[in-house]
Amino acid sequence: MITKPINCLNKCIMVPSFFSNPIIMLSTFPLTPTKETSFHNFPKAGFHSSTPTVCSNEGGAQRGNLDFLHVMEQRGVQADCNTYIWLLKGCGSFGEVKRLHGRILKSGFDGESLLCDQLIDVYIGFGEFECGVGVFEDMPQKRVSSWNCMIHGLTRGQLSDRRVLHLFLRMIREGGSVPDLDTFCGVLRGCSGGSVGGFKIVEQIHSQVIRYGYSNDPIVGNPLVDLYAKNGYVNSAWLVFENLCWHDSVSFVAMISGFSRNNLEHGALNVFIQMLKSGITPTPYAFSAVLSACAKIEFYEMGEQLHAQVYKWGLTSDTFVCNALVTMYSRRGNMVFAESIFSEMGINHRNAVTYNSIISGLAQRGIYDKALQYFDKMQLSGLKPDCVTIASLVSSCAFTGDLHKGKQLQSYSIKAGFSSDIIIEGSLLDLYVKCSDLQTAHEFFDSATTKDNVVLWNVMLVAYGQECDLSGSYEIYSRMQLASMKPNQYTFPSILKTCTSVGALDLGGQIHTQIIKTGFDLNIYVCSVLIDMYAKLGSLKMARDILERLTEEDVVSWTAMIAGYAQNGLYVEALRLFEEMQIRGIQSDNIGFSSALSACAGIQALSQGRQIHAQIYAFGYLTDPSIGNALISLYARCGKIDEAYLLFATIDIKDHISWNGLISGFAQSGHYEEAMQVFTQMNHAGLGANLYSFCSALCASANIADIKQGKQIHARIIKTGYESEVEVGNALISLYAKCGSIVDAKQKYYEMHDRNEVSWNAIITGYSQHGCGREALDLFEEMKQEGVMPDHVTFVGVLSACSHVGLVNEGLNFLKSMREEYGIVPRPEHYACVVDILGRAGLLKCAKEFIEKMPIEPDALIWRTLLSACTVHKNVEIGEVAAQHLLELEPEDSATYVLLSNIYAVARKWGYRDHMRQMMKDRNVKKEPGRSWIEVDNLVHAFYVGDRLHALADKIYDFLKDLNDQLSKMGYVQDRYHLLNNIEQEQKDPTVYIHSEKLAVAFGLISLPSAIPIRVIKNLRVCSDCHNWMKFVSKVSNRSLVVRDVYRFHHFEGGICSCRDYW
């Protein structure tokens, strides 16, 4: 027998090439091989693929390794530690390992560290972790390699990351071995599968890495970056990445992945650019990650550049890269490119993600037929559609309201076994909700396989919110609480939006309490909806408090607050907040700009509006429809007709909002004729008027007292079915009242089935303007009895009514009740009404004292009211005081100079009168000329004082001469010279001073049939002479005259005026 030294045998055993040649094998062992010991019968299974094949056991007991030991013993060769290590590597079953382990124990090698390490590795490799732990625990001395073997074994077996951590911490505590790079790599890889328990645990691992000097090594740094990022600590991951001594492709991919996973797409793109600059070849995963980032943040141009890089690096056939490209182009809406990439991929490179991306892209753009074709292709290719595919198609049906196709997909999901999937259930419920099939949605919700999905509850809240069904919404919310379903950040906004739409502020406050209890009171999205609710429902202080408690600068919350101020008429506060938002560096969105423009329009702040317009242009929002409409409204309401028309012309698709912006803007800025022209153009353009269009047109007709046009609009309103709308009823009341037909206004008021505070205000103000003060006050009492709370507009009407009929004490009592009974703080217009009450009654001294004791600083309106009363009652002393304040407040207003000049003229103080006139010339103040309008044969005719430009001027003056002769016979005495001194009376032609309202009335008498009342509008207050003249005219002509001046209506009939000479 030839013996071989053990070292020689071990050398042969450990060299793989030795066993690759059976001739060498046979020459080494000259014994005649038996069936059991032949080379070809050694087991081929080994733990590592590179391990040499030593034996096999085809159909027999697995004894190859033990037979080999037997051969060695026959040759007199004693196996050592290396022999057993080699044999363990070649074991093909757990049984072989156990038998070899037994021989190792008999041989006394169980204390050898290398052999124990191999035993641990093999046991764990066969899934027998506890056996490996037993070997590890029995080791007399544990080297770092032993610890590493256990750590890597746990990692390779995908066992609990906590077991990896506990083992690592035990290694640190026992202190017998110093962790090396391999240790940390194993620990970090073992913890990368899931959450490791928070930032402190990750930080402890990092601290040990730093302690042992490996913090800059990419071998440890790369998995540490990955671990930080997976647990959401991106800043820490970035610090580790930055401190690495060099960066390889793994480093960059880990950082790109970290940014992408945490929705920090800009960071991922920046790292990718840095990767390219470093000269490192991008991996397919890096490309797919940054392409996905471009799609998420809509950096489509950069995505196209990356597409070119994909071609450059030859990655056009990579499935992950191509999937990302398909997704990016689908989201952009470039389905041509998306389908092209899909086609180029080839059938072997497509997977379910590929089909999901293309189907979702097509479905979201309403290309359902093609989406369904790809759906069929997906099935034919052997790829089973998953829940994402079905959900995408169902969601697209929900988006377009295609309930029929949605139900077909539901049938497919049932057949495919997806019907109980929470994604499918959520999509199907959303389908029924968006298709307004609330009954089926409720049935589907009740039959859902699980109610543990909060999304389903949220969708049902949205469903009832769409129907403004607060009771149904609250029922779902209550059931949710009873089911112990924990709400998320989307639950509360759903019901809060319903509270907002129906005005349920009290319930909204209760929900707010629940938000605080559940810890969502600092959630940005929830807070933005709370701010929107409180702001829209008038609780602005609460909304502002929430905004100021926010820890993050959220543009949606700021925008909601700005919009709230604007919608509640607090335009100055809205603009201040908009300015503060910009100072804080918060970039406004389209809604913020739109709200700021609305605020500018509300106070005619044209200069500030132009500045915001410039910002809109700079930030690229000019093409946004909401911005365009807001700009139209701004310039129209500021009276900039040409600019409003120019902006209107630039809008490609002109909707109701665009047209209404022009109509209402022109109407509110006093350009009523232009408003009516736009209303007519809107109808000719084929766009039927809506509720807002009709209301704006009625407003314009009312302000030019065009009752004929107003009645035509009224007829169209009846035809289109808008007459039952409360807003339309209110506008019609105002129309008829302002056109002098208080009877029609009253009739419309009593025809309304539903009324709000605006309805009451309109009819009370109408009665007040027509001098029907008692009737107005009776309606006010009726309003209170019906439980309708008066507002500041109501009290303007009530106080004006007291003024027109001389109810001094009643007016003072009403002012007092505003604060004491109704909690309404009087505004300047209320104080002006009280001054008017006292002034009309001749109590000028009391009026002056009242002004001096007011809790607010008197404005120009208040002083002008007092000055006007002084003119009527010829009080020079108090008139001069009022005029002095007016000249300080509004030195450019001509009314002040004219009124004071008239006071001096009445008092025969001609020098003072001339001084005032010269002051007007020196200051270049132009007096507003008196002007009157009357409509005859669908044409509005305008007259000035002493006007001879009219085509029938001669006929009018001849008629006036004859008419005045008749009036003189009845006792009328013309007071045409009370403002002229004796010299002026001699020099002036009497016809030069015929006021415009006399000319208009004369023209009406000539041109209109006797059955039609003569309606005249005057832009200034009717003088006493004209008022007296019209009383005589109504008696002589037996005609009804209705004159509307700047203060009120005068109805002349049978020689009597409705104001009873008190105006």
Summarize this structure briefly.
Helix content is 67%, strand content 3%. The chain contains 58 helices and six strands.
Keywords for this structure?
elongated, disordered N terminus, 58 helices, 6 strands, mainly alpha, 6-stranded mixed sheet
What report would you give on this structure?
The chain contains 58 helices and six strands. The chain is mainly alpha-helical. Among the domains are: 451-552, no CATH class; 827-927, Alpha Horseshoe (Serine Threonine Protein Phosphatase 5, Tetratricopeptide repeat), CATH 1.25.40; 931-980 and 989-1057, no CATH class. It has a six-stranded mixed sheet, covered by helices on one side. A hairpin with a 2-residue loop joins strand 1 and strand 2. It is elongated. PPR repeats lie at residues 248-282, 351-385, 453-487, 554-588, 655-689, 756-790. This is DYW domain-containing protein. Residues 971-1063 form the DYW domain. Keywords: Repeat.
How many strands, what sense, and barrel or not for the largest sheet? 6 strands, mixed
Number of strands: 6
Percentage of β-strand residues = under 5%
What structural class should be given to the helix and strand makeup? mainly alpha
Residue windows where pLDDT falls under 50 for at least 5 positions:
1-62, 981-987
Q: What is the share of helical residues?
A: 55-70%
Straight-line N-to-C gap: 144 Å
Rg is 46 Å
Q: In what order do the strands lie side by side in the largest sheet?
A: 2-1-3-4-5-6
Mean pLDDT: 84
Quaternary state reads: single chain
Number of separate helices: 58
Using the alpha-carbon principal axes, give the shape. Answer: elongated
